[in-house]
Design goal:
Elements lengths: L1 H48 L2 H17 L2 H12 L11 E4 L1 H5 L2 H6 L1 H6 L4 E4 L3 E2 L13 E5 L6 H14 L2 E6 L3 E3 L3 H7 L3 H4 L4 E2 L3 H9 L12 E4 L4 E4 L6 E3 L5 H15 L5 E4 L17 H17 L4 E4 L5 H4 L13 E3 L1 H13 L3 H11 L6 E5 L12 H6 L4 H12 L11 E3 L9 E3 L2 H4 L2 H7 L2 H20 L3 E5 L32 H5 L7 H18 L8 E5 L6 E8 L2 E8 L5 E3 L8 E3 L5 E2 L4 E3 L4 E6 L2
Parallel strand pairs: 1-2, 1-17, 2-5, 5-11, 11-12, 12-13, 13-14, 14-17
Antiparallel strand pairs: 3-4, 6-10, 7-9, 8-9, 15-16, 18-19, 19-20, 20-25, 21-24, 22-23, 22-25
Helix pairs in contact: 1-2, 1-12, 2-11, 14-15, 14-17, 19-20, 20-22
The protein binds alpha-D-glucopyranose (GLC).
Length: 635
């Protein structure tokens, strides 16, 4: 008896010693990370805020969030620290989805992980799910509480359960961190509206319009038709408040260190729920300065750099994905430098818009140029490639170059919008304008990939030939997207060719926002046809499946490979070459409805068609209308 007790006491002591040792090891890890960044973090913080006590508070809280971080997550952090390029391989494939549309709620998504895996997807972007007011939510981008899930979608426990299940399945989870603004229903906003100075100073409040009017002189508008001006007058409070997006989204004032600290705590709180990728929403807008455009200011980079260091200290497994929907010169700086990196990933937005320009014109010249620019960037830069996302397509193209070829900005935008509505230029596309400005004639565009490729029209007309071409174009666009360097992300529903959903017009909360046309419900009946190649959904699903498997098995698809375009002597046909070590792959894509015969200049040797296994040369290759090849060089 006594022996047993002694043994138990010994085990308890041993266990206590073990856990003490573990704790001190974890502490040493933290110290190492903290020490590595302390000087620079402090320097930047003091430069921006000159407030030592707020910095001390930040440091204390970082430590607390680290202590609270789950052991499993800490383990993953260490693995990723050892392999910092974990997201740059050829095995990554993303999918973005709305939780309610896809599976009702978070539990539903967890139940559908098998489907997600069957799409070869190992990264899901859960569209905004934090608490947001009904009808004034901007699709969830107006957050009322950063620590609460929308009740219809579930709870924080459900989120943790989903991220844990994803971790077991090797799926990374991305969420939006909407840091530029809060909803007017957020506690801070309510207290600011009630006149509490402490909270008013977390936003931009003015008791008359003098300063707002000064801002308006230089700040362009994001939503010119739905929200004219960058300020909203609150009649009850007798104040103007800055609202760059919708009037119910109040811009946060990052000049106030309390805002920065608290938002970082929210960020870490969410990271600790098992999130792998934080999409920093609308990041170029987060710093405001009178007499500037209030976009991409240098303080924005200071803040993003601090966020990067903070996440490397507390949760280095987490990636930052910057949402910078801007021209290319403005995008790349958000990667920071090699020594002082900012975001891990950025959207390849200009390439996306240029792709649709190419679809509408059949002219690949601008896309070729754009791809060569991206291909010439450092290999450390990881782009997120996509055809469609939850937002509209803005026609941010390189008009200086287009002008040389006779395209004029205003009339070309009009052509693109007409084309995609199906009005002009041999088009069978369907979709709707977004934020059409009758004064400037400017508009952006909404629709799903399938509808923009003519699948909806072909189905309406029951035209089999047109359907065959539309499906081929849809698949070819995906094949082309997979050829780019970075992480391809599918828009949920695209894998089964989901068309536009017009039901949003009957919902008064959504009717004014045409982006809902491509935010429809997942059609699980269509998904059931995924393995049946006699159906349109099955054809798309199976074709993408083959491409995704090729991409995953060939290392020339990794981000570190070289990417360049090859001249095809045909403005309708694009050729992308990828090379890594001794391996080479060519992707040849016909953007026109004509059958072609293509000769690739400057490439020789024998190739294998990766889809059929057939041997092929590079001269006089027959290329069907909207068809493509993946060719691998024989060694
Ligand atoms: C981002 C989102 C968009 C939202 C805006 C304001 O651009 O993608 O959907 O309207 O931010 O938060």
């Amino acid at each position: 008896m006594r022996g047993k007790m002694a043994e138990t006491t010994q085990t308890v002591t041993a266990k206590a010693a073990q856990s003490k040792e573990k704790a001190s090891r974890a502490e040493a890890v933290y110290r190492r990370r903290f020490e590595r960044h302390l000087d620079e973090l402090k320097w930047l913080y003091m430069e921006l805020y000159d407030n030592g006590s707020m910095f001390a508070e930040l440091c204390d809280c970082l430590h607390r969030f680290y202590e609270e971080r789950d052991r499993e997550l800490k383990k993953k952090d260490m693995e990723r620290e050892k392999c910092p390029g974990w997201y740059r391989g050829n095995d990554m494939l993303g999918m973005m989805l709305y939780i309610d549309n896809f599976a009702g709620n978070l539990r539903g998504v967890e139940e559908k992980l098998a489907y997600i895996k069957s799409c070869n997807v190992n990264y899901i972007h859960l569209m905004p799910f934090l608490d947001t007011p009904k009808g004034r939510s901007d699709g969830g981008y107006a957050v009322a509480d950063f620590r609460k899930v929308q009740p219809e979608l579930g709870t924080m426990e459900d989120l943790e359960s989903l991220t844990a299940a994803c971790r077991r399945e090797g799926i990374s989870v991305c969420m939006d961190f909407v840091m530029n603004h809060t909803s007017e229903e957020h506690e801070w906003a309510r207290r600011a509206r009630a006149g509490e100075g402490e909270y008013m100073s977390r936003y931009f409040f003015f008791d008359n319009d003098t300063i707002p009017a000064e801002y308006e002189k230089t700040v362009p508008q994001v939503f010119p038709t739905t929200a004219p001006g960058n300020f909203t007058y609150l009649a009850d409070a007798g104040h103007y408040v800055m609202t760059s997006f919708y009037p119910y989204q109040w811009d946060l004032n990052y000049r106030n260190p309390r805002v920065f600290n608290e938002m970082m705590y929210n960020f870490l709180y969410l990271a600790n729920k098992g999130i792998d990728i934080m999409r920093i929403d609308a990041v170029p807008y987060i710093w405001k300065e009178l007499h500037t455009q209030c976009r991409n200011l240098k303080q924005v980079h200071t803040i993003v750099r601090m966020m990067r260091m903070i996440s490397e200290i507390v949760c280095p497994g987490v990636l930052l994905l910057g949402e910078v929907v801007m021209e290319p010169e403005k995008v790349a700086p958000y990667f920071g430098t090699l020594e002082k990196p900012e975001c891990h990933m950025l959207y390849n937005v200009t390439t996306m818009a240029t792709t649709w320009h190419t679809v509408a014109t059949r002219d690949v010249r601008l896309l070729k140029r754009q791809l060569d620019i991206v291909g010439g960037l450092p290999k450390e830069y990881v782009f997120l490639n996509y055809l469609r996302c939850h937002d509209d397509i803005g026609w941010g193209l390189d008009y200086a170059t287009l002008r040389l070829w006779g395209f004029e900005e205003r009339s070309h935008k009009q052509y693109l919008n007409n084309y995609f509505q199906g009005y002009e230029g041999e088009s069978s596309s369907k979709g709707e304008l977004y934020n059409a400005d009758p004064v400037s004639g400017d508009a952006r565009f909404c629709g799903t990939t399938a509808s923009m490729c003519g699948i909806e029209t072909a189905a309406c007309l029951q035209n089999e030939k047109a359907m065959e071409l539309a499906v081929r174009q849809d698949v070819t666009l995906h094949a082309y997207m997979f050829m780019q360097s970075g992480i391809p992300v599918l828009y949920s529903g695209d894998e089964i060719g989901r068309v536009n959903d017009y039901s949003y017009k009957e919902n008064p909360d959504k009717a004014a926002d045409s982006r809902y046309i491509h935010r429809g419900r997942m059609d699980w009946t269509l998904a059931e046809q995924a393995s049946d190649e006699k159906t349109v959904s099955g054809q798309i699903f199976q074709s993408l499946d083959r491409l995704e498997k090729i991409r995953r098995s060939e290392k020339v698809f990794a981000t570190r490979a070289d990417m360049r375009t090859v001249d095809t002597k045909d403005t309708n046909v694009l050729c992308i070459g990828r090379a890594y070590e001794r391996e080479e792959i060519l992707g040849v894509f016909n953007f026109s409805e004509y059958d072609k015969e293509v000769s690739l200049s400057g490439v020789d040797g024998e190739y294998t068609n990766l889809l059929t296994g057939e041997r092929m040369g590079t001269e006089k290759i027959p290329l069907p209308a909207y068809g493509f090849y993946y060719l691998k060089k024989n060694l």
